Amino acid sequence: MSQVRWDLYEKFFKGYTKKQWGVYPSELDKSVTSRIPTRTNTDDHYFKDTYQYMPLHGYTKMFEKMLSNDKIDLLLNTNYKAVKDKIPHKHLIYTGPVDEYFNYCFGKLPYRSLKFEHKTLPKDQFQPVAVVNYPNEHAYTRITEYKHITGQQCHKTSITYEYPCATGDPYYPVPRAENAKLYARYKALAETLPDIHFVGRLGTYRYYNMDQVVAQALTLSKKLIKCSIL
What we know:
Elements: H1 5-21, H2 58-66, H3 80-83, E1 92-94, H4 98-101, E2 111-121, E3 131-133, E4 142-145, H5 147-150, E5 157-165, E6 172-173, H6 177-190, E7 196-198, H7 200-204, H8 210-226
Parallel strand pairs: 1-7
Antiparallel strand pairs: 2-5, 2-6, 3-4, 4-5
């Protein structure tokens, strides 16, 4: 409110937050609204980072290259608990929900999820930019048109509608005081397991951006390499 005042709060923050998180901004930690940049210039980038790039051939190709090492075995559509006793390891890097790892012994941590509706349209362009947010109207929060990001030239276009929901795959830890207290109990329990490293949004119950998660992963890998664990 100190940055945008009541009018812009009503137009942009209040409705969007209620759809995205299921509660009003006053019920969330202030870090949520502080993620939204407020500027007095014409810079339309979401982030202020000097360098902002996409993988040249897309994320699929990037991950395929990362996983192509002969020492990596990949098991898809596999529940961790179904195989944890079959795979020997000295150290485990766990990126799933921390409460699930401990069988919800202190209770479930709340998460928000998303439902995606994909459409291919017989037109060159659907919207003028890559992402358009809808703070108040409609049940969805935003529409993404990928051609603006990839630079593809095609007489059709693909778009995606995003619908926030309370059920489904866990995407967003919900930053509220009571949830932080509950996570602190799981964190204390996790710290008693020195051979298991909890990372990522779900493993540390933090609302990280992608670059922050990558930085966390690189920091941990350097630590393990230095200790001659890997």
